[in-house]
Amino acid sequence: MSNTTELPPTRCGLVAIVGAPNAGKSTLVNALAGTKVTIVSPKPQTTRFRIRAVVMEGRAQIILVDTPGIFAPRRRLDRAMVAAAWGGAQDADLSVLIVDARAGLTDEVRAIAEKLKGGGRKLMLLLNKADLVDPPRLLPLSKELNDIVPFAETFMVSALKGRGLDRVKAVLANNLPEGPYLFPEDDLSDLPQRMLAAEIVREQVLRQTHEEVPHHATVETETWQERKDGSARIEVTIYVTRATQKGILIGDGGAKVKSIGQSARRELEALLERRIHLFINVKERAGWDEEGGRIRALGLDDQG
Ligand SMILES: Nc1nc2c(ncn2[C@@H]2O[C@H](COP(=O)(O)OP(=O)(O)OP(=O)(O)O)[C@@H](O)[C@H]2O)c(=O)[nH]1
Ligand SMILES: [Mg+2]
Question: Residues annotated as region G5 (predicted)?
Answer without folding.
Answer: 157-159
